[in-house]
Design goal:
34% helix; 8-stranded mixed beta sheet; 18 strands; 466 residues; 14 helices; alpha/beta
Length: 466
């Protein structure tokens, strides 16, 4: 039928979205040479001498060792199931069934799914909330200390903690002090740095430091979100001595295919190699400088951009002029400009690492046309955080909630019920509620309000435990 092939072939829009290689423009030259070979010749099995991410010998293992040395890590593993697979592997590699893990409220849904699979209890901690836009911000040391002081002292064995750095939108602080705080209370630290691979290149340019320099024990990078890899490519880094390597590799094997794509493995290698070369670093610097220039031009045109610590994320604050981000996204999409993330109050463009000639004029033109079309609008700032405590423990373990007998209720009638599923707009993939949470009146009212804001992304009904 060729439906998928035709769609890919006909995709002619200006892509300001992931993957970050910009429709192939910024893919490393070494990998482009591989793609130019006879079609399919690069699709090879785990032949003797080739190996794989979990095989002790072979060129894949050599490549992983070179990458780890270059980044100052103890070990690394390439992933062909995205950051999702490696985040889940890492979490189950540091926590056993029945244990708990400390996870931020704005964690990716893959970590909650790992808790379901592994029989873990997620201890959810709130993070700062920016009411003018509806985004989560990273916690600072004082905030995290309040979280630590609020942890339940009995009944839960907390095995590890998760930090998110940077957020999907590019908000970031130096997380080393946070890692140190968590280490002081005996917790190994997993950092979801899916959107921060490029930070490890340390090109300066005012970028926040990478988690690889923070003392964290496990760090996951997505190589298509913030590197030059193909979709599904990722890498897991190990540092320090707090993690059992044997258990970790057993967990990786649970979540990764036994027949990894040689093409994706080569993409992992080329994406990481690129920023260990002078030319690659120079291209990264140029992309950052280009992104800052685009922001400067748009601000000069009066566009309401939000400040973020990653200049490669361009956030248009549509709520500030009374326009819903989903409406703005459709407007841009209909005119061939493809954004990454629409939300009720914003729309985020990912500039990536390819040249973006003329993109500031293009965004400005479509935005000014949208303002002229909308004419009379009133700014809105109607964003409220989830009405929960600093630390929340689900009423029921997620595994039991997910696998237990359920019935379906209307979202508006869920107060008093224990939720048996994820409610999670995607993207950004941050759950509003997780399996095992009990809905009180405040949370019920908040969810109903979210449904009205995230049109089409929050269901009318949900499964609850009987």
């Amino acid at each position: 039928m060729g439906i998928i092939s035709n769609l890919i072939d006909n995709n002619r829009g200006r892509m300001l979205c992931l993957p970050a290689h910009g429709h192939g423009v910024a893919i490393p030259n070494s990998f482009k040479r591989l793609l130019r070979l006879k079609a399919g010749i690069w699709d090879v099995p785990e032949l003797p001498g080739f190996g794989g991410p979990l095989i002790a010998e072979g060129v894949v293992q050599q490549s992983q060792s070179f990458a780890a040395d270059a980044m100052g890590a103890k070990r690394c593993w390439y992933g062909v199931n995205g950051a999702t697979g490696l985040l889940q592997s890492a979490l189950l590699g540091v926590a056993r069934p029945g244990e708990a893990v400390l996870i931020p409220r704005n964690a990716h849904k893959s970590l909650i799914q790992a808790c379901v699979i592994g029989g873990l209890t997620p201890v959810i901690y709130e993070v700062p909330f920016l009411v003018d836009r509806g985004h989560n911000a990273p916690p600072d040391e004082m905030w995290l200390q309040e979280v630590i002081d609020s942890l339940p002292m009995e009944g839960l064995a907390i095995a590890a903690a998760v930090l998110l750095h940077p957020t999907y939108h590019g908000y970031a602080l130096d997380i080393k002090p946070l890692v140190d705080q968590l280490h002081e209370v005996g917790l190994p630290v997993l950092v979801d740095e899916a959107h921060g691979t490029h930070l490890a290149a340390e090109v300066g340019e005012g970028l926040p430091p990478s988690a690889l320099k923070s003392g964290a024990d496990l760090i996951v990078n997505s190589l298509h979100k913030s590197g030059l890899g193909l979709s599904q490519t990722a890498v897991l880094w190990l540092k320090g001595d707090l993690v059992d390597v044997t258990r970790l590799e057993q967990s990786i094997e649970l979540f990764q295919t036994s027949s990894p794509s040689s093409l994706l493995l080569a993409s992992c290698e080329s994406a990481l190699d690129e920023w260990n070369t002078p030319n690659g670093l120079e291209r990264l610097k140029s992309a950052v400088q280009q992104a800052r220039e685009i922001s400067r031009k748009l601000l000069n045109h009066g566009l309401p951009l939000l400040e973020t610590q990653d200049p490669l994320r361009l956030i248009l604050h549509t709520a500030s002029v009374g326009i819903n981000g989903f409406e703005a996204d459709k407007w841009f999409l209909d005119r061939g400009l493809i954004a990454e993330l629409p939300e009720p109050g914003c729309i985020t463009f990912c500039l990536g690492f390819s040249p973006q000639k003329g993109v500031s004029d293009l965004i400005n033109k479509h935005w000014q046309d949208l303002l002229a079309f909308k004419k009379d609008t009133t700014p809105f700032h109607d964003f409220v955080p989830p009405p929960s405590k600093r630390v929340v423990v689900p009423a029921v373990k997620p595994l039991r909630a997910f696998k237990g007998p359920t019935r379906i209720v209307a979202l508006s009638e869920a107060v008093g019920e224990v939720v048996a599923e994820l409610i999670c707009p995607y993207p950004p993939g941050i759950p509003l509620v997780i399996p095992g949470e009990k809905i009180d009146q405040a949370m019920g009212d908040w969810l109903v309000k979210q449904k009205k804001m995230w049109v089409g992304n929050v269901p009318d009904q949900l499964a609850v435990l009987i």
